[in-house]
Design brief:
single chain; eight-stranded parallel β-sheet; eleven-stranded mixed β-sheet; 19% helix; globular; alpha+beta
Length: 727
Amino acid sequence: MTTNQNQPSRKHSGHSARIVLLAMIACALACASRAQTIRVDATPDHLTNTFSPARALGAGIDRLPPGATDKLFIEPTIEKVLSAGWQTVSYRQNTELHIEAWHWNPQGSWSDPGGKGYFTGSATPGEPIRHSYAYPLPHRGVTHDDGTDMVGYSRLTDGDLNSYWKSNPYLTQAFTGEDDSLHPQWVFLDFSAPHPITAIRIAWADPYARRYLVQYWTGEDPIKKPTVGIWQTFPGGAVTEGKGGAAVLQLSSTPIAVQYVRILMTQSSNTCDTHGSADRRNCLGYAIRELFVGTTSLNGEFHDLIRHTPDQDQTFTYCSSVDPWHETANLDEKAGDQVGFDLFYTGGFTRGLPAMIPIAMLYATPEDSAAEISYIEKRGYPISYVEMGEEPDGHYTPPEDYAALYIQWAIALHKVDPSLKLGGPIFTGVNKDIETWPDAQGRTSWTRRFIDYLKSHGHLADLAFFSFEHYPMDPCKIQWSNLYEEATLVTHILDIWRQDGVPANIPMFITESNIAWQSEEAYVDIWGALWLADYVGAFLSGGGDAIYYFHYLPLGLHHGCNNSLGTFGLFSTDANLQPQQPLSQFFASQLINLEWVQPGDGEHRLYPASSDIQDPANHTLVTAYAALRPDGQWSLMVVNKDQEIAHKVRIVFHNAKDNSDASFAGDVDLITFGSAQYHWHPDVNNGTADPDGPPARSKITVAAGTLFELPNASITILRGTISPAKN
C-alpha cells in the first residue's frame, strides 16, 4: 500500500485530534465556569442604525400552489400567522421567475385581435380580483436559468422550425433611444462538455441579425465564472451582411474543442415576425427558429451535435432577453396562483399597512405596469414601494439592459404617480459581488454598471431603494458551524453594494430571505431559529433598512435535501394547509418582533455590541444586538451559537464620551428560546417538534455584578433600564 507523503501519518493526525479535543474540552469547562463579557458601546453618537419595526420588519407573500389561496385566507390562519409579529408585507412576483407574462388583472386588452399579442390589464376597478395567473412565454430562448425550476424549454433547440426565440423589443433603439449595438442581444449553447466544432447552421426567423458574431468561450463556465475566460470569435464567425434564412457558416477549417457557443447580435433587419406588421414590436429585435452546431465532412455533409427536444433533455440554451408576446392559449393555471390584489389587500395579512408591490418588467410592457399601479391607487390601497422586475441576475440579464428597461418603466409609472418610490434590482440570494462579462471599459461588476447607467442617463433619482434577496447557505450542505458565518455574510454584502456605487442615501432592503431553498429540516430545527435572529440583528445593526421574512404563509411539510422533512415557513400544517404546530422560526420571529423591539412605528436606535466568547478556532460563539427602544428600555438580543455549552456573561454598557460604564439595574425581563424549549423530530409522526416551546420567561432583579446565563443553542432577550456602575 502506498501513502500520500503530503498527508500526516495516522498516528500523528490522531495525536493532533486528541490535542484539539482536549483543548476544546478545557475551553468548554473554562467558559462554563468563568464569566465572560458582552460589551455595548452606548456612546450616543456611535449608534449604527435607526429603524421602525412597522416599516423595517416585514414578510413576503408569494405565488401559492393551486387551490391553496382559499384555504389560507381564512381568519384562524390569518390570526396565527400575524401572531409571529411581522408587520409590513412584500408581494412577491413569482411569475417572472418562470419566464411568464403575469395577468395581474384577468380583465384587460390584447394588442392583436383574437386574444394575442401584448396584454394590458384593466386599470378600471371592477369585480374584486381574488386570483391571478401567468402565461408561459412562447418565444422563450432559455432551457432553464437561475430563476426557474425544471419546467418549460427553449425554442432554440426544440426541434420545431415553426417555433422561435425572439428578443425583447423594448431593448431596441425605438424604445431605448440608443443604437442597438449598445444593447447587443445574445444566445448561447452549453454542450455539457467540449466537442470539436467547425460549423453552425442558424435557421433565422424575422427579424434576423444583419450583423453578428459566432463565438466560443475560453474559460470554464461563462455563467458561474464570467471573468475567467473570454468570448473568442471563431475564424469564420463574423457576419456583417446577414441575409436571414438558413445561414450556414464554416467557423473554422480545423475542429476547435469548445463547450459553449454564443451568437452575439448587434444589428437587426427590423423585418416583421409571424405576428405581422400592425404592431412595431413584432418587427424589432432578433428571432431564431433553430440552431445546429457541429462539423462538416469533406463532401459538405453537416453533422449536428445538438439534441433537439421540446423538454429539459434538449441541448441547453441561454438568452439575454425574451419577447413578452403571448396568447390566451398559453395560460397555465396549474403553475399556481398569484393572489389577486383585492384579496391581498383586504384579506387581513397586510394589517392595513402600506405594502411593497411588484411590477413585471423583464416580461411585460410599461403600459401594463402603469395600469397595475393605477388600479391599486384607484382602489385606495396603500403602496410603500414598487419593486421593478424580478431577479435579473438569475435570468442573466445584462446590467445595461435591466437599467434601460428600468428607465422606461420609471417614466411610465411616474406619469401615474410622481411620488412612487421605485427600486430594484431584486438580486437572487448572493454573498459576494455579482460579476458579469466585461464591458468595453473592462468593468465586470453588475451593480456598478447598473448604477453608472442610471447616473449617466440622468435617472439615478428614480432609484429610491436598492433591494436584493438573501439565501446565504448551500441548501444541502448546512452544518452547525454555518451559524458562525451569517453575521459576516450579511454585513459584508451591504459593504459590497456601497463599494459598487450605491449612494449612501439610498436605503437597502432584503425583500425576500431565509436560509436556503430545499433545506426544509434546517428551517424547522433550532438551527433555523438561531440563524434568523442572528441574521436580522446583524443586518439592521450593519446599516440595512428593512427585511422581509419568507415564506409568510404555511405551505405544509416537504422532503428537502437528503430527504429531510420540514417546511419553508412558520407552521406545520394538516393536509388542508391549516396550521398545526408553531415551528422554530415562529418562536424566533416572536422574540424579534414582540420582545426585542417595541411593536409599533417608534424609532429604535441600534448600538454596537460584542462578546469575547470564542471557540479554539476563533469563531465568535455569542453575538449580541443592542437596541434602545422608544420606551427608554435597553433591549439585547443575544444568540448563543455554542451547541453544547451555556455561558455566563456580565453585560457592560460603555460610554466613550465620558469613559463611563453602566449596567442593567432593577428588574430585567429575560426571555429565552433554545434547545431546552424546542427540538425537531423529522422521523416522528411525519415530522413533529417536542418540546415545542414556548420560550422560558422570567423577571429578575439585577445589580452591577449580576451574571446572566445564556443556555446552549439559544436566543435570549434581556430588557430593562441601565444605571452607572458603582466603584
